[in-house]
Structure formats: C-alpha cells, structure tokens
Design goal:
The chain has about 475 residues and is mainly beta. The chain contains four helices and 35 strands.
C-alpha cells in the first residue's frame, strides 16, 4: 500500500499520446476528467491519509486519431501555502497541520489557532463537476476551485462560506433534469443543522444564485453527523444522519495537534436516521426513518416506486474502515480494517407516513426486495431493515447516469476487502439488482480505481456501453485506462 503514496511527482500539462492495446469503440469521443489525491510529500512532511494528497486533475481525450493524456496539480490555496512553507501547514482529514514557519514566531501560534478555527482546506481532491463550461473541483469542506478544462489551469477559488453559514459540504452534488445542482452542507455550532441548497448550472457564478431549500436540525445540536454524499430521486432528497459525529471538543482537539480523523466520535448503540425532504415544497417529512447503526460514504441511487423511496448505499457495519486509509504515525504500512462494504437497500414507505399504522405491520409492499419497515410504538418513526446483498462487496458505486433517481438494474463498483490493509485482490464488480448476481473482473498486476459507465449512443439496454476505469500498475509508476 505504501507505494500508492509515491506515484505522483510532477505535472504533465502537455498532452501525450497513449499507446492503445486492443480496440476502442468508434463512437467513444470526448474527454474524461478524473480528480484525486496525488502529491503526498511536502518537503520532509508526508500526508498520512489516502484522502489527503494534494489534488491532481487528469484528462483523457478521445478522438478518432487516438487518445491523449495530461494531468496537472490543482493550485489551491492549501497547495500554495504548503509549498511556500515547504511543509504541511493546513490540516487535512488524516493529517494534522503545523504552524507556518513563515509567520513571525511572536505571532505564529496566535495565527495558527486562529487559522484552525476559521479556515478549512480547499484541497479539492475528491470530485470534479462540469458547470457552465468550467470544471468545479470539490472536497468535503466549503472550498471550491474552478479549473479551465483545456489547460487544466486553476482559475478561481470560491468559499461557500461567503454565501452561506456552511463549513462542510458534500463533494458529490446531484444535477436534476431542470439543470439545477443540488447539494447538502453542514453548519457547525451549538445549534448545528444540515442544509439542502440548489443553484443553477448554466450561469457563470452559480453560487451567487444559490437558494436554501431546507434546514434540518442536528439531533445532537453540538455534534453534527459526518456525511459524504446523499440520495436524490425525482421529487425527494435524502440525508443520512449517521452516528459518526464532530464532537463538541472539535476545535480544542484541532488546536491540540490532532487530525480530523482522530477526533470524530462514533456512537455504536445509536440509530442512523434518514431525513427526507420534498424538493417541490422544501418541507421535511415529519416522520423519521431509522435503522440500526452502520457507516456509509456513498449512495448508489435513490428512486420512487409505488409510494416507496428505494435507497441503495455502499455500507460498512461501523466506521472502523476509516483506519484503513491512514498511515501509522511512525512508518509502516496502512493498517487494515476488518470490514468490507456491501450494497444495502433500504425502502422508506412514503405512503405510510401518517400516524395510526399498526406498529407490527411490514409497510414495504414491493415484491422485488426483502427490505422491511415497521412503525414504532412512539408513532413518530419508522424502523427500517435493509436488504443486504451479501454477494456484492462494493465501494465507489456507479450506475448508468441516465437512470439517476430512477428505477435501475445494474450497479458497478470497486470490490475491495480492506482486511488485507492493501489493494491486493481488488476487483471490478458489476451487480445485477434484478437477478442479484455479481460479475467480476480482476488482474493481480493492477490497482483499480472508481469505474465510470459510458452508454453507447444507440443504447437499447441499460448496460449497453463501456465501463472506463484507470488502473495503476502495482509495481511500476505508470497508469493505464481500461475499457470493458
């Protein structure tokens, strides 16, 4: 695993031609952008988490004449500050920040504490979204970087905090057919809340046109939940309030030199809660959908069917997997977590949100799932039991995006058992939700990445197209792009 942290050193801003083995469909034209953590060494300091590397944007261009590749570091404010100081001065998820040596010593610690309390990283290494002919690179904080798609040059930094009171935002916004980009963010204070907002995608400054749709109070007012993504159907947005939280001592712990991953608090005996917002009215449904504790990064898809809201996620039994992504403090490889992520299906019965339903009756009437939901005796919540696809070990779920928010059949992802503490045995998985059957691809020489499904232009079936994914040769510092 340690070799993963040593794969990127320099930009390759000038496109280079790719060597093609096999054949490429003649209809496959366009550009694939991929964002991720790349640079892990700053001076003598090392970023300790797979999520923490300085962001690198990669571009594959498909033309009839061939395929070209280039990449470039995103010159975020965080990257510039770290490089200027030649050390890590901005805290990341698994790496603590340090006082900036360029600040005079008499004021250094004052500014260090002030910086921790007021500034989040804008190392946008998680996702990239196309908006108004620009690329918007995102991470889990309120910092966003806009990148020019031809040169991959970083053009503009935006702080969501200038438009809202949010300090955390999902790096996986969702786009509806009307052209609006929807997202959730978190306001952290003694009265924390989660905010659903939307903004138009066809304007040069979407944040200036941002609209708050709904605010959801945190059940632990001073301890909001950690979240990474959310679900959205045609008419509803779904926020998962997990039991992994930012503790009330957050800022004191940060000042004490701890990384964020070290201070998140996990409640093992509390319930997870699904909050459902009606996108049309902006109203939060007055019933809480609860479930036994679990942990999730990624929603796969959410859709409506006959008065139900079907929610598919990649789920772990607890948050122990976070330890798998962080280097030990002193040398060594990444510590493995004895958990795997499986695809879980929850069904939220929207048709039974009114009081008075028999609290022993299964409210799920869909025949194609074993998921259950039962109204609780307090008459204010519905307890949901998921259908767990035990033969579907899957993370980084992707689908044919023509089926976003709609009933679908196929889910693609990375199959990985983190018990090993490495990427040994990593596979690509295609899961058929109708037949509940998995199809796998693997090659021990490669480390796979998140897949992307590209539908054929004349597709008649949901899975008619190609799956693209980048591969890293396990023992050679070279990347490949594979079409399946």
């Amino acid at each position: 695993m340690e070799a993963f942290f040593d794969r990127f050193k320099n930009d390759h801003a000038d496109p280079v031609s790719c060597q093609i083995k096999g054949s490429v469909p003649v209809w496959l034209k366009g550009t694939l952008f991929a964002n991720g953590a790349g640079l892990f060494d700053i001076g003598n300091d090392k970023l300790k988490c797979l999520f923490d590397g300085m962001a690198v944007l990669q571009k594959y261009t498909f033309k009839s004449s061939g395929i070209s590749y280039c990449n470039r570091l995103i010159h975020s404010r965080t990257y510039k500050r770290n490089k200027r100081a030649n050390r890590i001065v901005v805290m990341e998820f698994g790496t603590a920040g340090n006082p900036d040596p360029l600040i005079p010593i008499c004021t250094r610690y004052f500014w260090y504490y002030y910086d921790l309390l007021t500034t989040e990283t804008d190392n946008t290494c998680v996702n990239v979204v196309e908006i108004c002919n620009k690329l918007m690179a995102m991470t889990e904080t309120n910092g966003v970087n806009f990148v020019e798609p031809v040169s991959l040059a970083t053009k503009r930094h935006v702080n969501l905090g200038n438009y809202t009171d949010l300090r955390v935002s999902s790096p996986h916004p969702r786009k509806d057919p009307d052209g609006y980009i929807w997202n959730f963010g978190t306001h952290i204070s003694c009265a924390s809340h989660y905010t659903l907002y939307k903004m138009p995608s066809g304007v040069s400054d979407p944040f200036a046109n941002l609209k708050i749709v709904c605010e959801i109070p945190s059940r632990w007012r001073a301890e909001p939940s950690y979240f990474h993504s959310f679900g959205m159907s045609d008419n509803y947005a779904v926020f998962l309030e997990q039991t992994l939280t930012f503790p009330p001592t957050l800022f004191l712990s940060l000042v004490g030199g701890m990384a964020l991953s070290e201070i998140l608090k996990f409640y093992k005996t509390e319930k997870c809660v699904f909050h459902v917002v009606d996108k049309r009215s902006g109203q939060l449904l007055d019933v809480r959908f609860t479930a036994d504790v679990f942990f999730s990064f990624h929603f796969a898809n959410t859709f409506e069917d006959d008065g139900h809201l079907v929610v598919d996620l990649s789920c772990y039994p607890d948050a122990g997997v976070l330890k798998s992504f962080v280097r030990p403090r002193v040398g060594g490889d990444v510590a493995g977590s004895k958990v795997v992520s499986r695809l879980w299906r929850f069904v939220l019965p929207l048709h039974s949100t009114k009081n008075g339903t028999n609290n022993k009756e299964d409210l799920v009437t869909l025949e194609y799932t074993t998921a259950r939901a039962v109204r609780q005796a307090d008459d204010k919540s519905i307890f949901c039991v998921p259908e767990v696809f035990n033969n579907c070990i899957l993370e980084m779920p992707q689908i044919n995006h023509a089926f976003d928010g709609k009933q679908y059949r196929y889910c693609y992802g990375m199959m990985q058992d983190f018990t090993t503490g490495s990427f040994d045995g990593a596979k690509l998985i295609k899961f058929d939700l109708l037949k509940k059957k998995a199809t796998l691809w693997a090659d021990s020489n490669y480390i796979p990445s998140e897949p992307l499904f590209v539908p054929a232009p004349d597709a008649k079936e949901e899975d008619d197209g190609n799956v693209l994914r980048m591969l890293a040769l396990r023992f050679i510092k070279r990347k490949e792009l594979q079409l399946l």
